[in-house]
Amino acid sequence: MKTAILLSLATILAGSASATPRLNEIMNNPPSTDNGFEFVEILSTTGGAEALTNVWFVVIEGDGTAPGAGVVDIAIDLSSLSTGANGLLLLRDGTTGLLPAAAAQTTVANLLGAGTLENGTQTFLLVTGFTGSTGTDYDTDDNGTLDSTPWTAVLDAVGTIEDDANPNTGYGASLGFTDLSEVTSTFEHEALVYDASVPRWVAANISGTSPGPYTIDVGQSFPFDVKFDGYALTPGNGNGLVAVPAAAQESWSLYE
Fold first, then answer.
1. Is 93 helix (H, G, I), strand (E, B) or coil?
2. 110-125 burial, b if ≥16 CB within 10 A, otherwise e?
3. Once rounded to an integer, what is the mean pLDDT over residues 233-254?
4. Residues 6+ apart with CB under 8 A from 88
C-alpha cells in the first residue's frame, strides 16, 4: 500500500514539475483605438491554478528603425499572480469589459500600460528569472541573434514580423519557438491565436468594434484555415476552435 501511495505521489509531482504556462491569445491591434482593449492571455498547461512565481512577460522590439531590433519594450513581473482555476490569466491594459466577458474563474490583471503593445514587428515571450531592463538593446548589431539573454529560461515565444520596407527581426524562432511573417503589407497581424489542435500559432486581421466581439478575417489569416471562419477572439475563455465539415473545407479551398 505504501509503495502504491509513493508511486502515485511521484506521478503527481512529475506531472506538476513538467507543467509550464504558455501564451495563448494576443490582441495587439484592436479596431479603432488600441487603448483599453489590448490583451494577452496566458494558459497554464496544468489546466488549473498555477503560481507564476519568477515568471515574466517580455516584449522585444523587432523593427530595424530606431530604437532598433532587440530592445526590450515591456517587462512585467507576474510573480504575484496565479492562473485562475480554469488555467487562464488575462493581462489587460484597461478595465472596460471585453466581449465576450472573461470567465469568472479567470485571473484578470490590469498590468499592461494603455496601448503599449505595438502593431509592428515584435516578439512576445514568457521567461523565468528576468534580470534585464526595458530600453536595453540585446541585439546591438541587429543580426537576429540576441547578444545576451537576461533570463534563466524561455517558456514560450512567438514573433510577428511585418511586411514593409524596413529591416524586421523576429526572435521566436531563434529561441526555439515561432515567428510569423506577414504575407503582404496590407495584411497586418492584429491578433495571434494558439491553435492547440495542430499545434501552431495563427495570425490574422480582425474585424469588429470595441469592446468586441472581435472576429478573425479567415481570408487574411496566416496560415489560412477554414476553422477560423467566424471565429471570435475569446479573452479569458480559452480557444475553442470548432471542427469544420469536409464539404465546407472543400468550398473554402477555392480561396486559398
1. coil
2. ebbeebebbebbbbbb
3. 60
4. 24, 41, 42, 43, 44, 102, 103, 105, 106, 107, 236, 237, 238
- Is residue 151 within 8 Å of residue 128, measured between CB atoms? yes
pTM of the model: 0.86
- Phi, then psi, of 9 in degrees rounded to 5: -65, -40
Phi, psi of 14 (to 5 degrees): -65, -40
What would the grid cell of residue 65 be?
Answer: 528603425
The residues that bridge with 27 in the sheet, in sequence order, are: 39, 191
Q: What band does 250 get if pLDDT is binned at 50, 70 and 90?
A: very low
* Partners of residue 256 on adjacent β-strands: none
Give the integer Cα–Cα distance in Å for 82 and 246.
40
Supply the pLDDT for residue 44.
Answer: 96
Q: What is the pLDDT of residues 74-107, one digit of tens each?
A: 999 999 999 999 999 999 999 999 999 999 999 9
CA nearest neighbour of 115 among 192, 206, 187, 29: 29
Gap between the Cα atoms of 120 and 224, Å rounded: 20
